[in-house]
Amino acid sequence: MSSFWSFYIAALVVLNIAGCVWLLWYTAHRRANKVNQAETTGHVWDGNLTELNKPLPRWWINMFYLTIFFTIAYLVIYPGFGAFSGTKGWSSIAQLQDEEAKMQAIWNERYARFEGQPIDALAKDPEAVQVGQNIFANNCAACHGSLAQGANGYPNLTDNDWLWGGTPDRMLETILNGRIGAMPAWGPALAEGNQLPAVVSYVQSLSGGEKSELSARGETTFKTLCIACHGVDGTGNTMLGAPNLTDHIWLHGSDTATITRIIGEGKTNQMPAHGPLLGETRARLAGAYVWSLRQEP
């Protein structure tokens, strides 16, 4: 806090306390024996109902004085008087940090027995899975859903389709470091000869769509431009995060318009790195929960 604001706040505090003291003194010195019992404030209701102008009772005034003394004592002990931190040295930030440290110590003790264990081993431990479910709910469910079944653009974690590989080590790597998937825009390259619809038709045929003369024409283009990432047979490449186009699973949708837009305009997706947020042990526990949801092939 700057010197100006410290002085400004301190001045306001002093003026308010002084104003309260003066108001009490002014009211208290008009004792009952010095005031005409018939004196009124001049307010009249319903023709004959008046408000008498009598001083406050002594006990009430004393309570106000005690409140002022309490205020002064509080400002001496605790922060509140400008930049003065109080004689106790307490602050809300310090209290928060202390409480966080205590909570972290409790969690560290709880996580200690899970540290370094493989994800697939943790997935067999009911307590580890329960802890992992809580971690998932707090950090992952916003994108992947409370049941981990994903949404349009967010992978379903309960199936066996893994863009970057579904082994425990690859899963941990994904959680800790995140992933960035980039599908380049092929619209300009496919504009000549109107090749885009043909490629779309061929891609759909790889996953059970109807094969036609159009898809056959698209196969030639696909095997010229797309196999570097998706492979000759369209089964993808987990090292690049290139999806398998033959398994009937579509992250962004399987309709013609969506596939046309993605091939033509490209697509970028990002899984944020959770290593700095969770740490390795908590990441392993979240991975164990996801691993426990896997469907057996």
From TrEMBL:
<feature type="binding site" description="covalent">
    <location>
        <position position="140"/>
    </location>
    <ligand>
        <name>heme c 1</name>
    </ligand>
</feature>
<feature type="binding site" description="covalent">
    <location>
        <position position="229"/>
    </location>
    <ligand>
        <name>heme c 2</name>
    </ligand>
</feature>
<dbReference type="GO" id="GO:0020037">
    <property type="term" value="F:heme binding"/>
</dbReference>
<keyword id="KW-0375">Hydrogen ion transport</keyword>
<dbReference type="InterPro" id="IPR009056">
    <property type="entry name" value="Cyt_c-like_dom"/>
</dbReference>
<comment type="function">
    <text>C-type cytochrome. Part of the cbb3-type cytochrome c oxidase complex.</text>
</comment>
<keyword id="KW-0812">Transmembrane</keyword>
<dbReference type="InterPro" id="IPR036909">
    <property type="entry name" value="Cyt_c-like_dom_sf"/>
</dbReference>
<keyword id="KW-0349">Heme</keyword>
<feature type="transmembrane region" description="Helical">
    <location>
        <begin position="6"/>
        <end position="26"/>
    </location>
</feature>
<keyword id="KW-1003">Cell membrane</keyword>
<dbReference type="InterPro" id="IPR050597">
    <property type="entry name" value="Cytochrome_c_Oxidase_Subunit"/>
</dbReference>
<dbReference type="InterPro" id="IPR038414">
    <property type="entry name" value="CcoP_N_sf"/>
</dbReference>
<dbReference type="InterPro" id="IPR004678">
    <property type="entry name" value="Cyt_c_oxidase_cbb3_su3"/>
</dbReference>
<dbReference type="GO" id="GO:1902600">
    <property type="term" value="P:proton transmembrane transport"/>
</dbReference>
<feature type="domain" description="Cytochrome c">
    <location>
        <begin position="127"/>
        <end position="207"/>
    </location>
</feature>
<feature type="domain" description="Cytochrome c">
    <location>
        <begin position="213"/>
        <end position="294"/>
    </location>
</feature>
<keyword id="KW-0408">Iron</keyword>
<keyword id="KW-0679">Respiratory chain</keyword>
<keyword id="KW-0472">Membrane</keyword>
<keyword id="KW-0479">Metal-binding</keyword>
<keyword id="KW-0677">Repeat</keyword>
<feature type="binding site" description="axial binding residue">
    <location>
        <position position="183"/>
    </location>
    <ligand>
        <name>heme c 2</name>
    </ligand>
</feature>
<feature type="binding site" description="axial binding residue">
    <location>
        <position position="271"/>
    </location>
    <ligand>
        <name>heme c 1</name>
    </ligand>
</feature>
<feature type="binding site" description="covalent">
    <location>
        <position position="143"/>
    </location>
    <ligand>
        <name>heme c 1</name>
    </ligand>
</feature>
<keyword id="KW-0997">Cell inner membrane</keyword>
<feature type="binding site" description="covalent">
    <location>
        <position position="226"/>
    </location>
    <ligand>
        <name>heme c 2</name>
    </ligand>
</feature>
<dbReference type="GO" id="GO:0005886">
    <property type="term" value="C:plasma membrane"/>
</dbReference>
<protein>
    <recommendedName>
        <fullName>Cbb3-type cytochrome c oxidase subunit</fullName>
    </recommendedName>
</protein>
<keyword id="KW-0560">Oxidoreductase</keyword>
<comment type="similarity">
    <text>Belongs to the CcoP / FixP family.</text>
</comment>
<keyword id="KW-0406">Ion transport</keyword>
<keyword id="KW-0813">Transport</keyword>
<keyword id="KW-1133">Transmembrane helix</keyword>
<dbReference type="GO" id="GO:0016491">
    <property type="term" value="F:oxidoreductase activity"/>
</dbReference>
<comment type="pathway">
    <text>Energy metabolism; oxidative phosphorylation.</text>
</comment>
<comment type="subunit">
    <text>Component of the cbb3-type cytochrome c oxidase.</text>
</comment>
<dbReference type="GO" id="GO:0006119">
    <property type="term" value="P:oxidative phosphorylation"/>
</dbReference>
<dbReference type="Pfam" id="PF14715">
    <property type="entry name" value="FixP_N"/>
</dbReference>
<keyword id="KW-0249">Electron transport</keyword>
<feature type="binding site" description="axial binding residue">
    <location>
        <position position="144"/>
    </location>
    <ligand>
        <name>heme c 1</name>
    </ligand>
</feature>
<dbReference type="GO" id="GO:0046872">
    <property type="term" value="F:metal ion binding"/>
</dbReference>
